[in-house]
């Protein structure tokens, strides 16, 4: 039987409990591992809905692991999930789908039937719509998922294919186009993508009145797609052009009307205003006519139909300016910064050390750091110092020791310290990703441009959760399972290779 694991990005919605419940109730094979990736930017001080849902799923017999990705979007969350997986296949499902009891059995059959050259198998999506009325604009948009290509609401990828293309491009911050980008790169790498028979149910989740307006941010992602894949990417991805040309015409008419009115050209203003009104009315009617046409829906469509065209144009221009200012390299971007753990990695570990005189560098540390600086790479320090929370040393002592490390090994471009203890929620204490994300932000680089070097699993976990690369340099305290789980392991600092 072909092994598979399941990765679920989430922001803690109640639907996560439903999804995990349907996954636990499967009549087919159980996944090797379920990785739930909490992509909320902070940590709860009260009851954590993700921890609660995972605990319930474990009690139902699922092997569930919860990790956190720091609020960087679904692409980053999925990367943080699949990089923890060792199965041959990784099935991505969204936290708002429900899995019929036959899903796992049908998925296993699809994967077993996949030839060696198949890099991904797409599932089928069913979107239930109201039976007693016509669907709203939002409901019709969700129903389009049933015919969409390569969507990761239910999509299984061969882990080898994900490794070859370095997973999802984390420069796509929304649940939009990141799935098409990945699939295009997988196909370009020589893999095939097939449709399978496994089926997931995608209910229409509630949406705010202005949800369709917020979706216009995706116009900037379309620009990024063009920059990365060329102007024919829509044809290859079976993606429609949409209404952007009409939105441009509507926005131009509105701008002409406003400008003419301000300059006293009333006839031109009137003509342009009528053109804007006609285009807006046509757009609104296209959205109203297929729907229930009740008062709330009509009001929602009229407001958003007037606001969407300028929003779409704005986000399109924003994307164009961003790409022209900084043309995006292929994914993944090259390493620009190396972040080091302190104790056990750069200097010999002295537990809860507050004495600068006890600092002793590890052999090869100065040579490695000097070589990296000579290449123009930024250097950072990311260190847990829970002794402060435990009352065993002060922050001033931590800073004094860090200053001594810099004196012996050269300056650091950023120093990130977590003084949090292990008994309270923390976004910064490794294995949480906070310090790595803060270091990347301070250095002005993407997390994916960072390489983290450490001596224990918490260092590797923090890197993977943040979207950085990781190298483990084991010591006597490194556990065997940490070595086995690390993506790259070297025997000493001198063997660290930065691509």
Describe the structure.
With 499 residues, the chain is of the alpha/beta class. It has three domains: 4-206, Spore Coat Polysaccharide Biosynthesis Protein SpsA, Chain A (Alpha-Beta Complex); 208-328, no CATH class; 337-495, 3-Layer(aba) Sandwich (Rossmann fold). Helices cover 43% and strands 14% of the residues. It has helices spanning 15-24, 49-59, 74-82, 103-113, 137-143, 159-165, 178-188, 211-214, 218-229, 233-237, 244-262, 266-288, 295-325, 365-374, 387-390, 395-409, 434-443, 457-466, 480-485, and strands at residues 4-10, 34-38, 64-68, 89-93, 118-126, 154-158, 192-201, 337-340, 378-384, 414-418, 450-454, 469-472. The strands form two sheets. It has a seven-stranded mixed β-sheet with strand order 3-2-1-4-6-5-7. Helix 14 links the parallel strand 8 (337-340) and strand 9 (378-384). Helix 12 (266-288) packs across helix 13 (295-325). The radius of gyration is 26 Å and the shape is globular. The two termini are 37 Å apart.
Brief synopsis:
Residues 5-115 form the Glycosyltransferase 2-like domain. This protein is α/β, with parallel strands linked by helices and 499 residues long.
Helices and strands, with pairings:
Blueprint: E1 4-10, H1 15-24, E2 34-38, H2 49-59, E3 64-68, H3 74-82, E4 89-93, H4 103-113, E5 118-126, H5 137-143, E6 154-158, H6 159-165, H7 178-188, E7 192-201, H8 211-214, H9 218-229, H10 233-237, H11 244-262, H12 266-288, H13 295-325, E8 337-340, H14 365-374, E9 378-384, H15 387-390, H16 395-409, E10 414-418, H17 434-443, E11 450-454, H18 457-466, E12 469-472, H19 480-485
Parallel strand pairs: 1-2, 1-4, 2-3, 5-7, 8-9, 8-11, 9-10, 11-12
Antiparallel strand pairs: 4-6, 5-6
Keywords: Hydrolase
GO biological process, one term: carbohydrate metabolic process
GO molecular function, one term: phosphatase activity
């Amino acid at each position: 039987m072909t092994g598979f694991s399941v990765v679920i990005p989430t922001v803690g919605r109640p639907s996560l409990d439903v999804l995990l419940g349907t996954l636990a109730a499967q009549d087919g094979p159980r996944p090797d591992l379920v990785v739930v990736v909490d992509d909320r930017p902070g940590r709860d001080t009260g009851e954590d809905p993700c921890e609660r849902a995972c605990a319930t799923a474990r009690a139902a017999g699922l092997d569930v692991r919860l990790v956190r990705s720091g609020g960087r979007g679904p692409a980053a969350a999925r990367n943080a999930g699949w990089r923890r997986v060792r199965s041959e296949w990784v099935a991505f499902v969204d936290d708002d789908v429900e899995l019929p009891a036959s899903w796992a059995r049908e998925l296993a059959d699809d994967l077993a039937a996949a030839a060696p050259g198949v890099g991904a198998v797409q599932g089928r999506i069913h979107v239930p719509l109201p039976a007693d009325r016509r669907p709203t604009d939002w409901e019709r948009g969700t129903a389009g998922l049933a015919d969409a290509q390569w969507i990761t609401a239910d999509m299984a990828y061969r882990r080898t294919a994900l490794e070859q293309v370095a997973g999802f491009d984390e420069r796509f911050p929304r649940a939009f186009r990141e799935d098409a980008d990945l699939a295009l790169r997988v196909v370009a790498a020589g893999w095939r993508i097939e449709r399978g028979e496994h089926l997931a149910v995608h209910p229409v989740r509630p949406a705010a009145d202005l949800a369709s307006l917020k979706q216009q941010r995706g116009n900037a992602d379309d620009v990024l797609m063009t920059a990365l894949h060329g102007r024919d990417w829509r044809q290859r991805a079976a993606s429609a052009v949409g209404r952007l040309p009409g939105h441009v015409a509507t926005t131009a008419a509105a701008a002409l009307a406003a400008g003419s009115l301000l300059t006293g050209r009333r006839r031109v203003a009137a003509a342009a205003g009528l053109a804007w009104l006609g285009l807006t009315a046509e757009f609104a009617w296209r959205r109203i006519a297929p729907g229930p046409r009740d008062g709330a829906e009509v009001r929602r469509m009229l407001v958003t139909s007037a606001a969407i065209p300028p929003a779409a144009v704005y986000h399109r221009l924003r994307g164009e300016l961003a790409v022209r200012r900084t043309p995006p390299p292929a994914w993944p971007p090259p390493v620009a910064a190396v972040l080091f753990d302190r104790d056990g990695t750069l200097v010999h570990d002295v537990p809860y050390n507050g004495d600068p005189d006890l600092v002793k560098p590890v052999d090869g540390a100065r040579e490695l750091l000097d070589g990296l600086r000579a290449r123009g790479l930024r250097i950072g320090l990311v260190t847990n110092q829970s002794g402060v929370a435990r009352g065993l040393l002060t922050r001033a002592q931590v800073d004094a020791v860090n200053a001594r490390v810099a004196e012996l090994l050269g300056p650091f471009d950023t120093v990130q310290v977590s003084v949090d203890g292990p008994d309270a929620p923390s976004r910064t204490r490794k294995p949480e990703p906070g310090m790595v994300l803060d270091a990347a932000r301070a250095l002005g680089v993407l997390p994916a441009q960072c390489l983290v070097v450490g001596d224990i699993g918490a260092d590797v976990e923090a890197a993977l959760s943040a979207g950085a690369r990781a190298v483990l340099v084991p010591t006597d305290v490194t556990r065997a399972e940490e070595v086995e789980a690390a993506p790259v392991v070297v025997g000493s600092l001198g063997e660290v290779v930065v691509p």
